Amino acid sequence: MSYQPISFYQTGTFTVGNRLLAPDERSVQAQVKRYNSLNSGHRACQGCGEALGARYAIDAAMEAAHGQLIAANATGCLEVFSTPYPETSWQIPWVHSLFGNAAAVATGIAAALKVKGKHDVRVVAQGGDGGTTDIGFGCLSGMFERNDDVLYICYDNGGYMNTGIQRSSATPPAARTATTMAVGAEPGNPFGQGKFVPAIAMAHDIPYVATATVADLRDLEAKVLRAMEIRGARYIHILVPCPLGWGTASGDTIKMARLAKETGFFPVFEAEQGVVTGVLPIRKKLPVEEFLRPQKRYAHLFGKQPKVDVIAKLQALADRNIRKYGLLGEEH
Amino acid sequence: MEKPFAITLDPGSSLANRTGSWRTYRPEYLDRLPPCNAACPAGENIQAWLFNAESGDYEKAWRSLTVNNPLPATMGRVCYHPCEGACNRQHLDASVGINSVERFLGDEAIKRGWKFVKPEKQSGKRVLVVGAGPAGLSAAYQLALLGHAVSIYEAGPAAGGMMRFGIPKYRLPRDVLDSEIARIVDLGVELRLNTHVDDLKQAMAEGRFDACFLGVGAHIAKRAYIPAGDANRVLDAVSVLRSMEGAHEEEMKPLLGRRVVVYGGGNTAIDVARTAKRLGAEESIIVYRRTREKMPAHDFEVEEALQEGVMMKWLSTIKEAGEGELTVEKMALDENGFPQPTGEYETVAADSLVLALGQDADLSLLGKVAGLVIDQGVVQVDAAMMTGCPGVFAGGDMAGNDRTVTVAVGHGKKAARAIDAWLRGGKYEASPKPEMATFERLNTWYYSDAPKTVRPVLDIIRRQSTFEEVLGGLDETNAQFEARRCLSCGNCFECDNCYGVCPDNAVIKLGPGKRFVFNYDYCKGCGVCVAECPCGAIRMVPEEN
After folding, report:
1. Of B198, B205, B245, B408, which sits 20 to 30 A from B54 (CA to CA)?
2. Which range of residues forms the domain containing residue B397?
3. Could you tell me if residue B121 is inside a domain?
4. What's B102's DSSP letter?
């Protein structure tokens, strides 16, 4: 793991800042004059995880690129809430692409910069899980296999939240969406469908793949900074809870991301050249029910007759993540 | 302006979109009361001085601490630290070792020679303090800082009261006490030793004092009637401990013999039994009428005494002291938990019997003070520590039943502030207490695991034979570590979490020491900052419209 928790400080490195740390040991987000790449006034919902994750990630990328950064942005929540014409919240050069071609547009920008000899200007592409794992997946896979010099960041909130909460291939099993209603014999999103794009990215043997959540800022920043040290195709998949789509309180956004990680429901790891090189271990393992229960999209599991069989299947998925990635750390 | 093809507007900023109008609840910063501060009888702002100690600014920490308590090195040794009993960290791993950090700061101050800063202006008022115990010293210190001329009249040959004549050296080395008293005297406080006040009114008139604080303590041993033969030595705990403070220790040692029995179950009984052991007694036995659980003595002191070989005899009362032996009756607890005699007797060999049955205050000096009320040996005071006689205030052991050094220091401070208000013609009002920073207010995810630092304990052989200090101190590295275990309950410690986690950049960071403010133009009121504040220093309140 590229980030080292500092022991025996009042709060270790779990908080955003720490007045007891030397300035160069503090997070990008703790700086008084941080980039605020995604500025105030955007129209994201209260407690939006994606707005938070985007600022975390792009500010860190700006830090690494010394402010020389261009972003291509797929259609989706992030694009809609940040740039209603003629306003923009972006304080970086930013291009809106189609829903499905952000990776290709970024590839084109990177190629143009190469032709112009501007090696100091770096390129990121970003989109939601719909634009990444469904609609833009062909372009993304192409960008990976050509090893284009782009950092692609996917903000995964598990569905098409902007258009009314439809299912995507990143929607977790049993979750209720507008297109997977909580009715019938197997209510919610079916088991056995969907895909985990970080694993597919790893299968391309690209230089760097990582997952992160908005609950672990220091880990997220370390991964973006690591990715920016590398040239070639890089992929970071960030879990960003959506209060609207998940049916959670707006203040619980970070808590939900933390629960996803602590239950093993969402594995947090990094990989280089297709090999896992580090995981962010679970600090205090929790049953998956802790993550499911606060979400209205799982309310159908917790009626008068709790659906213990479905909860057990979701627990089995989390347990499989824990085994597969070794999420309990070395001491376990 | 010429614009490219198909472009009609300049790019605008989303700052034009004041999303603050969406808000139905607004976040607000506040300071909640940490449970340690709430529990401290001396009213110390523990969280605040730990905050300074965390960054290694020990002098600032010490100055912050001594705002409320001028005796940190002493208190870091003898206080029973109710703060640690209230500490929220106990629900995570173990309480912060507040007492040990306090002692470290106190020792550091002595080592580095830090002094109190004298007030710039004098009030011209004169205040008499009777008794140089913890209450009197605390009051004198606070009054001197407020610019009043203070004289302490102390009946004994040295200042310190029960800290010197009641607490054994192995718990409080006298050089530590002397340094802390000297620092108070250096503020310009007049200390008159061997000055017994017989008549308070006369003393005040002669000294032209405008007000007075009484802190005469409680040093008259309570007696129990025990028939005793001529040959048996029956002593009281107060005089045994006092005689340990003679100028020539070897000559003044109390003659206790080889087998010593101490009667009582409080901390004083433990002190005497441990002292007897150190004086060479082969057997030092505490006889107490109830059980260990019911003992008023603090458990860690009982434990330390047991480690040193002190024996305990529970559920027993002493009926008679014969020559070389005592007759003891066994007791049994009734359904209400009170001991009842069983009629079973046994004998215990003893060369001396020391009674540690509590103490009364010597209130003879108050005979002619009008309006003063005494109830069951305790001087009655109002919320501002004033007795029924205007201008006469009292505190410490004589004015309460909770008799510890820490309570006395708190009384002295409170009385001093009340005296100051009274001298200015006003009435002291304590500032209202903020709401409590309970454990539920915290987000403890953010605190690293960090077990408590244990203080070194003196080797057992040396504890049984010498009066060296039993409990050691922390050094700088582990004192700072211990301070950094503080959760800073209810008070912002600038962790930047609110600043970082706001999805709308609606928190403005003002820089080191200046904390943060909300930018209500853009705050949507999502409440993420409140949920993720580790220490519970933000709350949500409904918007009016």
Report:
1. B408
2. 126-220+360-423
3. no
4. H
Q: Which of B506, B528, B534 sits opposite A254 (nearest CB)?
A: B528
Q: B321: domain CATH number? A: 3.50.50.60
- In which band, very low, low, confident or very high, does the pLDDT at A329 lie, cut at 50, 70 and 90? confident
For residue B191, the cross-strand partners are B152
The distance of B113 to chain A (nearest Cα, Å) reads: 27
Report, as an integer, the average pLDDT of A87-95. Answer: 96
Decide if B535 is inside a domain.
yes
Which of A8, A9, A10 to mutate: most B Cβ within 10 Å? A10
With CA atoms as reference, report the closest residue to B406 among B116, B68, B107. B68
Q: DSSP alpha helices (H): ranges in chain A? A: 49-64, 77-82, 102-116, 129, 137-145, 197-203, 217-228, 243-246, 253-262, 288-292, 308-325
Contact A88 B22 (CB under 8 A): no
Do B393 and B414 fall within a single domain?
yes
- CA nearest neighbour of A26 among A211, A222, A210: A222
How would CATH label the architecture of A29-325? 3-Layer(aba) Sandwich (3.40)
Q: Which of A49, A35, A110 is nearest to A245 (CA)?
A: A49
Record the tokens describing residue A264, joined without a space: 């093993």
What would the pLDDT profile of B346-357 be if each residue is shown by its tens digit? 999 898 999 998
CATH number at residue B504: 3.30.70.20
> Do residues B270 and B297 lie in contact, with contact meaning Cβ atoms separated by under 8 Å?
yes
CA B522 to chain centre: 46
Q: Which residue has the tokens 């940490």?
A: B34
Round the average pLDDT of chain B to a whole number and report it.
90
ipTM of the modeled complex: 0.94
Q: Reduced to 3 states, what is the DSSP secondary structure of residue B528? A: helix
Contacts of A81 in chain B (CB under 8 A): none
Instruction: Look up the pTM and report it.
Output: 0.89
Are B117 and B187 in contact, with CB atoms under 8 Å apart? no
Q: How many CB atoms lie within 10 A of CB B225?
A: 5
Q: In chain B, what is the greatest distance between 2 CA atoms, to the nearest angstrom? A: 119
Nearest CB partner across the interface for B448, out of A8, A32, A255: A8
Distance from CA of A77 to the nearest CA of B (A): 14
The 3-state secondary structure of B496-509 reads CHHHHHCCCCCEEE
Taking CB atoms and an 8 Å limit, are A40 and B505 in contact across chains?
yes
Compute the nearest-CA separation of A115 from chain B (Å): 24
| Chain A residue with the nearest C-alpha to that of B20 | A41
A211 inside 8 A of chain B by CB: no
CB of A46 less than 8 A from some CB of B: yes
Cβ atoms of A246 and A158 within 8 Å: the answer is: yes
